[in-house]
Specification:
Shape: rod-shaped
Number of domains: 2
Distance between the termini: 37 Å
Number of strands: 3
Largest sheet: 3 strands, antiparallel
Number of helices: 7
Order of helices and strands: HHHHHEEEHH
Strand order of the largest sheet: 1-2-3
């Protein structure tokens, strides 16, 4: 799991040659930084990256740079992996699966809180 602090330190110390981008698995950007390091433009951009890492929320950093991160901190069995939702636990029964699906719909704004509660009561 990538650390926001490590990325920030690499950006400020070695950002001119793109080390922080290699650390974040952004190889293309890392190569671009390295190729143009003689222009000092990557150095300026890495200072901006450093400030961005410092002010970025920890959850936002994890969702952006860590491929396996809990989408909902209270639901540790649901993770984001390359943009798709995966459930790491074995499904126990269909009603709990339906409630999880309803929760996802509610979080995405497709259904309202009242609809979620009504459907949950009917499933239970």
């Amino acid at each position: 799991m990538k650390s926001k602090t490590t990325a920030a330190v690499l950006a400020i110390l070695l950002g001119g040659i793109g080390v922080h981008r290699f650390y974040l698995n952004q190889t293309g950007l890392g190569i671009l930084y390295f190729l143009f390091c003689w222009t000092f433009i990557p150095l300026i951009v890495s200072v901006i990256d450093f400030i961005g890492f410092l002010i970025m929320d920890e959850n936002k950093f994890n969702q952006k740079y860590n491929t396996t991160y809990p989408l909902y901190p209270n639901h540790t069995n649901i993770t984001v992996n390359n943009g798709s939702l995966q459930n790491d636990s074995v499904k126990s029964n269909s009603s709990s699966d339906e409630i999880e699906k309803l929760f996802d719909l509610k979080e995405k704004g497709i259904i309202t809180q009242e609809e979620f509660e009504f459907k949950k009561k009917t499933l239970l």
